[in-house]
Amino acid sequence: MKLTFLGTGAADWDINAYEPDKEFRRFSAALVNDDLLIDPGPHIFHFARSTGRPEMFDGVRNIIVTHTHADHFCPATVEKLCFGRPCTLWGDRACLRILERTLGPEKAAQIDFRETFVRMPEPYRIDSYAVRPLRSNHATDDSAETTRLYIIEETEPERRILYYGCDSAWIPTESWNVIKTLPVNVLVLEDTCGEPAADDWRIFEHNTIEMLELMLRMFRKYDCFAPDVRYYTSHMARTLHTDHQTLVKKLAPLGVTPAQDGMTITI
Ligand SMILES: [Zn+2]
Ligand SMILES: [Zn+2]
Question: Torsions phi, psi of 255, nearest 5?
Answer without folding.
Answer: 70, 35
